[in-house]
Design goal:
Number of strands: 2
Radius of gyration: 22 Å
Strand order of the largest sheet: 1-2
Largest sheet: 2 strands, antiparallel
Order of helices and strands: HHHHHHHHEEHHHHHHHHHHHHHHH
Structural class: mainly alpha
Shape: globular
Number of helices: 23
Distance between the termini: 68 Å
Number of domains: 1
Strand content: under 5%
Length: 505
């Protein structure tokens, strides 16, 4: 009852007229920032951080958190309407959101994304409010072996993303891991895979450049090729009846929404994990438990709901270690942590005792910002649908310009723009050869997280890989991951056995 009382006080603080205005502005700005390729919540919060010095610290934090929420919603917009992820957190949304839009069901994809985001954020808010202290202690128990085991589990789900063609899926994963290792070695500082001392590769391959190249340039080339000169977008009809119908139809993605809501929050509270791995893992797990996994990648509602619920849930989860431990759970919360220090607030366990109004006012704002984000997002769906009505001869140059600007904005390096164009052509060729590009994209996201955790774990154990099996948390996760990796082999053996039995009988 004490927690409910504190939460109620926090909601009243968040309902202050200044805070309501800041939440509405923050959500709207976040929606725009998340939808613009190359920006994302990290850039948006960093750019607008200086503006918060004009208001009290509590209001400033509420404003920045609202931007964070809005950006999580907004990332799905360009993923669905243009096929370009607004941020890395929305990459998995592209897998099924874009096919739905090309089928003329952009309204269903956008409504599903909005509803799943709202549910994921609401579930995360409840979990944050009720279980902050015990969940913070669980996060502390996750060392390097546990985080690597979690990444291994994510890789194990990738096999399902390639359908029945396991060799092509594995090739795609290994290619992504190679791309993830370009740059300076994390242990020795030595350059590796810099392709003849090209200085642009020294900072590695920026993931956003890869994502925009594959899902912006590559998607545009694929659409031009597949239309064979008939360059018009699929009709996207808009009416109140269709929007209401889409709301009812989005319920079909309930399984993905549930998985994303809980898995996203759990991954979000892990230091350095964030919303991107959470959304990718939620997509993989949802496909793995689906009765019709082959429908994923072709416009499945659950393939939109799972990552969108996960990235919103993870964004709230990432706040937990930041407030309770002073450890940012994502790049965006690292910016927020810096802002708190500037405002003279010290994150950690004592924050809940010394700054009660600040903490619970912020938590109360999570609930209201989540509702505002849903309303603003649904209100702008007609605008998003209108984008699809433009002829592709108009849309294609816009996609190209947005891709180039977004690729340059990420690092402000022309090397990355050329690299983005190369990735776009490469993605188009891979699709022509029927190779899945999704596993490569997922591997380049998790590769930089998994590699240092693997190497640090082996250093800690003097090179003994049993460390991943002997520890009480990493052991079960590793075993499950190994079983999932070997599952296609078991299925192959079973199918051959059945074929021989049928031939003999």
């Amino acid at each position: 009852m004490e927690i409910l009382g504190l939460l109620l006080d926090g909601v009243f603080i968040a309902l202050d007229p200044l805070n309501i205005m800041l939440m509405l502005i923050g959500v709207a700005l976040g929606l725009f920032i998340g939808a613009m390729p190359g920006l994302g919540s990290v850039n948006g919060v960093a750019i607008l951080l200086p503006a918060t010095f004009l208001v009290p610290p509590a209001s400033a934090m509420i404003f920045l958190a609202a931007i964070y929420y809005g950006a999580m919603y907004g990332g799905a917009i360009s993923s669905i309407t243009l096929g370009i992820p607004g941020a890395s957190t929305a990459v998995a949304t592209t897998f099924d959101g874009r096919p739905l839009a090309l089928k003329g069901r952009a309204d269903l994809a956008l409504v599903t994304a909005a509803v799943a985001s709202f549910v994921g954020g609401s579930v995360a808010n409840v979990l944050f409010t009720a279980f902050a202290p015990p969940l913070a202690s669980v996060a502390l128990d996750f060392g390097d072996p546990e985080i690597f085991a979690l990444m291994l589990l994510a890789f194990a789900t990738f096999v399902g993303l390639g359908g029945d063609d396991i060799p092509k899926t594995l090739f795609s994963i290994f290619f992504g891991l190679v791309m993830a290792s370009v740059g300076l070695d994390i242990m020795t500082g030595e350059p590796r895979l810099i392709f003849g001392d090209i200085t642009g590769f020294m900072h590695g391959i920026n993931f956003l450049v890869l994502a925009i190249g594959i899902y912006g340039i590559g998607e545009m080339l694929w659409t031009i090729d597949s239309t064979r000169g008939n360059l018009t977008m699929t009709e996207a009809v808009l009416s109140i009846r269709r929007i209401l119908s889409a709301c009812r139809e989005s319920i079909k993605g309930w399984k993905g929404t549930a998985i994303g809501s809980f898995l996203g929050f759990f991954v979000g509270i892990l230091p350095a994990a964030g919303a991107t791995p959470g959304s990718l893992m939620a997509y993989g797990v949802t496909k793995m438990v689906s009765k019709n996994p082959k429908e994923f990648g072709k416009g499945h509602v659950g393939g939109v709901a799972a990552p969108e619920a996960a990235n919103n849930s993870a964004s709230t989860g990432a706040m937990l270690p930041m407030l309770t431990l002073g450890i940012p759970g994502s790049p965006t919360t690292a910016i927020l942590l810096g802002g708190m220090v500037i405002w003279g607030l010290q994150p950690g366990p004592l924050l809940f005792q010394t700054q009660t109004e600040f903490v619970w006012g912020l938590i109360g704002s999570f609930y209201i910002s989540n509702l505002f984000a849903l309303i603003v997002n649904l209100a702008f769906i007609p605008l998003f649908i209108w984008m699809l009505r433009m002829p592709f001869t108009v849309l294609a140059p816009m996609i190209f310009v947005l891709s180039v600007v977004g690729g340059y904005a990420a690092t402000q390096d022309m090397h990355d723009v050329w690299l983005m164009l190369i990735f776009g052509v490469g993605a188009y060729l891979l699709r022509k050869l029927d190779y899945p590009v999704a596993p490569a994209v997922l591997a380049i996201v998790l590769g930089p997280i998994a590699e240092p955790k693997l190497r640090q774990s082996l250093l800690f154990s003097s090179g003994d890989p049993m460390i991943f099996l002997e520890r009480p948390i990493s052991g079960p996760i590793t075993i499950i991951a190994i079983i999932l990796i070997l599952l296609p082999l078991f299925k192959l053996i079973r199918d051959k056995f059945k074929a021989r039995k049928a031939a003999a009988g």
